[in-house]
Design a protein that fits this description.
Elements: E1 16-18, E2 21-26, E3 32-33, H1 35-48, E4 53-55, E5 61-66, H2 70-81, E6 95-97, H3 112-123, E7 137-140, E8 153-157, E9 162-166, E10 170-175, H4 179-193, H5 206-214, E11 220-221, E12 232-234, E13 237-241, E14 246-247, H6 249-258, E15 264-266, E16 271-275, E17 297-299, H7 313-320, E18 330-334, E19 347-352, E20 357-359, E21 362-363
Parallel strand pairs: 6-7, 7-8, 17-18, 18-19
Antiparallel strand pairs: 1-2, 2-5, 3-15, 4-5, 4-14, 8-9, 9-10, 10-11, 12-13, 13-16, 15-16, 19-20, 20-21
Helix pairs in contact: 1-2, 1-6, 3-4, 4-5
The chain binds iron/sulfur cluster.
Residues 300-302, 306, 308-309, 334-336, 338-340 line the site of iron/sulfur cluster.
């Protein structure tokens, strides 16, 4: 059945018109980009946008404040740098991978190369350009850091040979060689069975109907244990907290310099992974140690970027976080009840209501 509702998920060409100008979202499968690509994004933000690079909860990057010529110029630059391999698929390349995959002892299998393989195979299938921009693939290296991201099609490593594929509540044990094809076959089956739905979980009996089309039976219980990746050194990686997930020009420059030959990985928690031993990060306001006041703190755009915002939540977060009681939980600041960009899992819910905030439903 033909869809009647428009997919409003922003991309590079189909930008969202926000109160502060065009907002472009650049997909980074696996959250990965080279130092050169980070520099392309930085320069584009400076010349075409408001100068900042926003990190998202799907490990993508956003540029705000684009004028009318911005999307075309930005897409040309991204195409030349390899960040826009398929215009038709640009909004559906939503692939998360465990950001520390292959870099520390917690990784049962290095899923980052699979993210690249999955992305290339996705772009090779014209029909999958029809996926909704909200449809999400996730590759968990076994540690459980992506266990609560609510992906449509997820894989979690068991060991070097096998993984569990899941579309919902139960899983199917498969070999690594089957992973890209089965994940994409599940996405194709979703397009066949859906009506107006954006996600597999919204389709009545979606998990069951899609698995049936693939000839699979979900008989493996899911490991739902989770782990949080905090700032600090993890094996050969340095995880860096980016205050409010918004990179300034000096911060982006410092991270590109720290990337080395292995590149930079953006995490779904709006932090960044670089090689251990990177210098010059704290000097530009980035945080390299765990338990800082900015660890796990996120905020939506708020005023002045969003017309719906009831407060400048970012300025309020900067002012109030140092005194905020949070008991080690993540914190999300939102300018209205939509709570854009809220993290998955539990968090302290801070919502503007016009003349103050609700914190976990309590007026403050
Ligand atoms: S949560 Fe509300 S104020 Fe914040 S970006 Fe979304 S719509 Fe705008």
């Amino acid at each position: 059945m033909a869809r009647t509702e428009t997919d409003r998920c922003p991309g590079v060409l189909a930008v969202h018109q926000a109160a502060d100008g065009g907002l472009a979202r650049v997909r980074l499968p696996g959250g990965w980009l080279t130092a050169e690509q980070l520099d392309v994004l930085r320069v584009a933000a400076a010349g075409l946008g408001d100068g900042r690079l926003e990190l998202t909860s799907r490990a993508n990057v956003q540029i705000r404040g684009l004028d009318a010529r911005g999307p075309r110029e930005l897409s040309d630059r991204l195409f030349k740098s390899g960040l826009l391999p398929s215009i038709a698929h640009e909004r559906v390349r939503n692939i998360l991978a465990s950001p520390l995959s292959g870099l520390d002892d917690e990784s049962r299998y290095d899923v980052l190369p699979l993210a690249g393989a999955l992305d290339r195979a996705l772009c090779d299938r014209p029909g999958l350009a029809e996926l909704p921009g909200r449809f999400l693939f996730a590759l968990d290296d076994g540690r459980g850091d992506l266990a609560d991201v609510r992906a449509d099609v997820a894989v979690r490593a068991l060991d070097e040979r096998s993984a569990v594929l899941s579309l919902g509540n139960r899983g199917v044990r498969i070999g690594w060689g089957q992973v890209p094809d089965l994940m994409l076959a599940a996405a194709e089956a979703f397009l066949e069975v859906r009506d107006q739905e954006w996600r597999i979980a919204e389709v009545p009996d979606g998990e069951k109907r899609i698995l049936a089309r693939l000839g699979l039976t979900a008989d493996e219980p899911l490991d739902t244990s989770t782990t949080q990746v905090t700032a600090g050194v993890h094996g050969t990686a340095q995880v860096v907290t980016v205050p409010l997930g918004s990179l300034t020009q000096p911060q982006a420059t410092a991270l590109a310099a720290a990337a080395g030959t292995t590149g930079v990985r953006v995490t779904p928690w709006r932090s960044v992974v670089v090689e251990v031993g990177a210098a010059g990060l704290e000097e530009v306001g980035l945080v390299t140690e765990a338990d800082s006041v900015w660890e796990g703190v996120t905020a939506c755009a708020g005023r002045p970027g969003c017309a719906k915002a009831l407060a400048d939540v970012r300025a309020d977060a900067v002012r109030l976080m140092p005194t905020f009681a949070r008991d080690g939980r993540r914190v999300h600041w939102a300018g209205c009840a939509r709570r854009c960009g809220k993290p998955s899992g539990g968090f302290v819910d801070v919502v503007a209501v016009g003349d103050g905030y609700l914190v976990d439903g309590e007026r403050v």
